[in-house]
Amino acid sequence: MSDKIRLLVGSDSAGFDYKDAIYADMQADDRVEVVDLGVYAGDLDGGSYPSVAIAAGEKIRAGEADRAILFCGTGIGVAIAANKVPGIRATVAHDSFSVERSILSNDCQVLTLGQRVIGLQLARRLAKEWLGYVFDPSTPSGPKVDEIVEYEDSLTG
C-alpha cells in the first residue's frame, strides 16, 4: 500500500490554466498520486464547475481519492458544489494561514482556489503547503469535526 496522497485536480474553464499548472507540479511531487478530472484543453466548454466539484467529492466519498484541489474563477463555486456531497468538507482559501487551518482545524479534503483572485505562484505555493498538513483528531479540533460529521450523518441517515 502506498503512503502517497491520492489527489484529484479539476476545474471549469475559468480555472483551467491554474489546474494544468498545479497538475504538472503535482506530477513531480513524490507525496502524491495525482489524477486530472478535467476540464481538458480540447473541451473547455465541456465541464461546469458543479460537475467537476461533485465528481471530485464523490470519488473522495467512495474512497477512490484522499483529497482534491479544485479551481474556478473565484474558488467559491467549486467549494459550494463539493460541499453538497455528503461527507465532504471543502473550502476556498487564498492565504497560508487559511490553508493550514483548513486541515489542522477542519480536516478539509478539498481545497479550492480562484484563478481570477490570486496569482499563479501563490496558488502553487498554497497547493504544496496544503499537502503537507495532516489532521490530528486528538487536538481540540477533533470533537468539533466529529460534531459536524455527526450532524451530517443525522441528515443522511
From TrEMBL:
Molecular function (Gene Ontology), one example: intramolecular oxidoreductase activity, interconverting aldoses and ketoses
Protein name: D-erythrulose 4-phosphate isomerase
Gene3D superfamilies xrefs: Sugar-phosphate isomerase, RpiB/LacA/LacB
Family as reported in the entry's similarity comment: Belongs to the LacAB/RpiB family.
This protein's UniProt keywords: Isomerase
Superkingdom classification of source: Bacteria
NCBIfam families with a match to the protein in the record: RPI_actino (TIGR02133), rpiB_lacA_lacB (TIGR00689)
Catalytically driven reaction(s): D-erythrulose 4-phosphate = D-erythrose 4-phosphate
Pathway the protein acts in: Carbohydrate metabolism; D-threitol degradation; Carbohydrate metabolism; erythritol degradation
Keyword Protein biosynthesis listed: no
One of the protein's GO biological processes: cellular response to carbohydrate stimulus
Entry-linked PANTHER family: RIBOSE 5-PHOSPHATE ISOMERASE (PTHR43732:SF1), RIBOSE 5-PHOSPHATE ISOMERASE-RELATED (PTHR43732)
The enzyme's E.C. designation: 5.3.1.34
